[in-house]
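Proteins fold reproducibly. Look at a sample protein:
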Amino acid sequence: MFELDDEVVARLRDRLSEVGYTVDGVQRQLGPVAHAALHRNETTPGLRETDDGGPLATLVRLWLLQASVPRSRVADALPELLEPLVAAGILYGRGDEVCALVDLRPYGQTDARSEQDWWVAADLTPGLDGVRPTVEPDHVLGVNSAATTLAQLTVRNRVDRALDLGTGCGIQALHLSRHARQVVATDVNPRALALARLTARLNGLEVRGPGESSGPSRPSDGGVRSPGPGAPPTLHLREGSLFEPVQGERFDLVVSNPPFVVSPRGDLAYRDSGLAGDEFCRRLVVEAPRHLTEGGVCQILANWLHIRGEDWRDRLNTWLVRAGCDAWVIQREVADPAQYIEVWLKDAGLHGTPGYRERYDEWLGWFEAQNAEAIGMGWIILRRPDRSVRPERRHVRLEEWTTTVAQPLGPEVSRWLAAVDQLRALDDRALLALRPRVAEHVDFEQIGRPGAADPEHLVLRQRAGLCRAERVDTAEAGFVGACDGTLTTGQIIDALATLLGEDEVTLRTRLLPRVRQFVEEGYLSLPDVASALS
């Protein structure tokens, strides 16, 4: 399925670059109005901007606008490539017209190291221009908000082995290939694996499929061998659900944009797991740690039930206790059952179809039977601690943060993990001896009525990461304001006690937990931890 000779893949990749079929090139071709309209699934403005007959305009019409294009124009835009693409089921020729059977679109990444132009193969976007979408059970999503969110959330430290569980069209695997020596990608959907294979090959990755041997290796590698020096990254594709394809293997990093929709049933592979409710996400969380190396990280997009009369944190805590990891859960959105059902029935193209009301009613009845009052949506980050860390010393944080954040958040996740390690290693005596420093992205706000003697609110506000805001009292504000890396925590607190007329011991007892909170949440950093512990 979608197979092309290596030579054809290389020619196609070169041609896409040559004509400027990249993120920037497409934006220039369409212009801001048509580009924004396309994000709303409207193609008419784009068709007006791509009638010049040039090769870039032709490819935009063919793949992004999903329009039929004269055969002669496609042949000019893709010399010696039209027939192989038709034969592979990527394009379809009918008389003098050609249309796309598979979506092929530019996708880019910009990070501190470089800019990267990629291409992603997936199924065509359903529902353009208001047409009722037809979504097949094995539909494979392309570039979408969930995929890009996970990509920006993922930590990008260099690792030996990485796993993309539920790879879909292979977007996460592309990102992992930039910083992992070995990448394994799994999916239960054979069509997804075929498109992930095409995505990887278009971007210069060597691909090996389920059951293929890559030569001798250690048993713990699961048959995967590191590429030699200078070799392109290798993507190992495997078919199966959850961790079945990687039994007995461990990874330094696991990422998953899973089929997380909470429902009684469903038949769309990209969003429905076949397990009722949030059971798939629960199993993913519980089973992930046994597939992590010590210090290994797992990052998951997830949905979960809010049971009436129960705090959602208590429900997820039952998952996390079994996982036995350091964990950070961030709830980003909450929807009532009706809102949630409407979104996903429309996503499946069922709105207004025969049986829509019956399906809606069935789903509502299922939520009622579960005593569910809402559905939470967010991120789950797990880190398997070193074996020397006792269970009671593992750190678990569950919070709701629904306001705007500053992507990418991967660096913030890495910072949080490092802060947890620092704080776990420091008792209060060691913390008092450190010289904290206020983070560069933190501002201090005083809010009050004009002319008032004292401000009504003192607020610490971040301009990066989660963009947190934290109300503080006078002592806390004074402490953070004095953290320039020259004074120890103890010296600052004692000076504040003298200034405010408070007992030193009492103020230390009150402020030290807040200092730990400020470090964990990124308001303060501890630059000299290693020397303090030596």
